[in-house]
Every structure is written in structure tokens, then in C-alpha cells.
């Protein structure tokens, strides 16, 4: 298991997304999404695809005593998911 302790995670750039490794732990952490997304197209086409722009995705991980903030700014974006089981995200935080 990977452990992120007392870590501030920033998604700052418009084209940058952050994915936490599967089965990791976030203990006493701050996850902050401050992305600025303007005029972007985020598209997922096909089976089992994920397209993210300025997003934070945390999957199959343990989040304890942490702060999760989404301060992303989104203007004039297109977010499209076409097909089965697809996800297209812009400036979001997903915890599964």
C-alpha cells in the first residue's frame, strides 16, 4: 500500500488531471483541485474509457481525516461521454 500523509495535492493546470494510485491511503491530507478550464473539450468514446481535464480521481483508496476541496473554474467547456460505461469529467473530484 502506498501512503500519502500530510500531503497537499494540487491540480493547477487546465490540462492536468491527478489520479491516486489504486489501494492507496490518504490520511490527514488535503486534496485541492484549483484547475482553471476554459474552452476545453473532454471526450470519452468507446467502451470502458475515462477522459479527464483538470480533475482529481481517487479510486479504490482509503480516505481518512482528510479535506477535499474543489475550487475549479470552468467556462465554455464541452464534456461528452459516448458509449457504454464511459466517464468524461472537467474540473471535478471523483472518489469511489
Explain this structure to me?
With 96 residues, the protein is mainly beta. The protein has one domain. Helices cover 0% and strands 56% of the residues. The protein has no helices and 15 strands.
Ranges where pLDDT stays below 50 over 5 or more residues in a row are 1-15
Number of domains: 1
Strand content: over 45%
Tell me about the largest β-sheet. Answer: 3 strands, parallel
Task: Assign a percent range to the helix content.
Answer: under 10%
The helix/strand order is EEEEEEEEEEEEEEE
Termini, distance in Å?
17 Å
Shape, please?
Answer: flat
What class do helices, strands and sheet pairing give?
mainly beta
Mean pLDDT: 80
Number of H/I helices: 0
Radius of gyration: 14 Å
What is the count of β-strands? 15
The largest sheet has its strands arranged as 1-4-10
Compact overview of the structure:
The protein is mainly beta and 96 residues long. The protein has no helices and 15 strands. It has one domain.
Task: Give the key terms.
mainly beta; three-stranded parallel sheet
Amino acid at each position: 500500500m502506498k501512503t500519502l500523509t500530510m500531503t497537499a495535492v494540487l491540480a493547477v493546470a487546465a490540462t492536468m488531471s491527478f489520479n491516486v494510485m489504486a489501494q492507496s491511503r490518504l490520511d490527514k491530507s488535503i486534496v485541492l483541485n484549483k484547475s482553471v478550464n476554459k474552452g476545453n473539450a473532454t471526450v470519452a468514446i468507446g467502451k470502458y474509457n475515462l477522459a479527464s481535464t483538470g480533475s482529481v480521481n481517487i479510486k479504490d483508496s482509503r480516505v481518512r481525516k482528510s479535506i477535499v476541496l474543489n475550487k475549479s473554474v470552468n467556462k465554455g467547456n464541452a464534456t461528452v461521454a459516448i458509449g457504454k460505461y464511459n466517464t468524461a469529467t472537467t474540473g471535478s473530484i471523483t472518489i469511489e
